[in-house]
From TrEMBL:
Keywords: Methyltransferase, S-adenosyl-L-methionine, Transferase. Pfam families: Dimerisation (PF08100), Methyltransf_2 (PF00891). It comes from Handroanthus impetiginosus. Signal peptide: none annotated. The keyword Transferase applies. The keyword Iron-sulfur does not apply. Belongs to the class I-like SAM-binding methyltransferase superfamily. Cation-independent O-methyltransferase family. COMT subfamily. InterPro entries: COMT-like (IPR016461), COMT_C (IPR001077), COMT_dimerisation (IPR012967), SAM-dependent_MTases_sf (IPR029063), WH-like_DNA-bd_sf (IPR036388), WH_DNA-bd_sf (IPR036390). This is Hydroxyindole-O-methyltransferase.
């Protein structure tokens, strides 16, 4: 297999795993009747007008629309000259969004884009910013959700780390030159660091994660495990690694949901 085919296969496997996101987001848009509202507005609609029409906070809606624009379901538009407003973001329809209205194939999207139960959960998060299955009051973050403590979650992160880290080792070895100590923040059970110190044996590797996660991590040769929260302190090192963490920090801070950050 030539490298290009391998790279394509890696991209394709992500599409297989996360392909559902596009149909879920499109279903949510259809359920909120965004295609109908944009079509009937009589010109480009601002994010604040759309937010008022669908009763979803503008920042959440902005991210949904950004996703849909990326997939060419809507288009960004200039502010109409007749409008005097602070809004800088405006949307307009496309041939695809016109197909998604309720008098067109919108009802099919509602049927095929995921269950009503799933949609109710997402809708509640969008409108209230609270995940129904997760205690978020009193400052408890989404990582308190028992789903994140399961073996399935750990295994899925380990296999992701294995694939991503081998690509990093293969394609960016120069990035590790001169690094004495490397800390992987949110490194779970140490898969990435274990591979990196094996490939670059001069590096001293630290895996940093929440105390309850680190407490369950089986020992890995040459890897030091440190428990704590990155919002308080992280171990001193020459370099910090954050893999699948930047988005997470966003939803830790905003008490958000997977849909909008994915
Ligand atoms: C999505 S997983 C990513 C795991 C790994 N980096 C990878 O790419 O496969 C995010 C990790 O961040 C950890 N985490 C969550 N909040 C954290 C915090 N405040 N400080 C340190 N780690 C945290 C979680 O326990 C989890 O293991």
């Amino acid at each position: 297999m030539v490298l290009d085919e391998e790279a394509q296969a890696r991209a394709d496997v992500w599409k297989c795993a996360f392909g559902f996101i596009k149909s879920r987001v499109t279903r949510i848009a259809a359920e909120l009747k965004i295609p109908d509202i944009v079509k009937n507005h009589g010109g480009p609609i601002s994010v604040s007008d759309l937010s008022a029409a669908v009763d979803v906070p503008a920042d959440e809606l902005y991210r949904i629309m950004r996703f849909l624009i990326h997939h060419r379901i809507f288009k960004k538009a200039e502010r109409p000259e007749s409008k005097v407003s602070d809004d800088v973001v405006y949307y307009t329809h496309t041939p695809l969004s016109l197909l998604l209205t309720m008098d067109n194939v919108g009802p099919l999207m509602l049927l095929q884009g995921g269950s009503d139960r799933m949609s109710m959960g997402i809708m509640k998060v969008l409108k209230t910013r609270n995940r129904p299955d997760c205690k978020t009051p009193n400052g408890e973050d989404t990582w308190g959700d028992p789903g994140y403590a399961t073996k399935e979650f750990t295994d899925s992160m380990a296999c992701h780390a294995r694939v991503a880290t081998s690509a990093i080792i293969q394609n960016c070895p120069e990035a590790f030159r001169g690094i004495g100590t490397l800390v992987d923040v949110g490194g779970r059970h140490g898969m990435a660091i274990a591979m990196l110190i094996k490939a670059f044996p001069w590096i001293k590797g630290i895996t940093f994660d929440l105390p309850e996660i680190v407490a369950k991590a089986p020992p890995v040769d040459g890897v030091q495990f440190v428990g704590g929260s990155m919002f308080e302190t992280i171990p001193k090192a020459d370099a910090i690694m954050l893999m699948v963490r930047v988005n997470d920090q966003y939803y830790l801070n905003t008490r958000d949901n997977y849909l909008c950050t994915s």
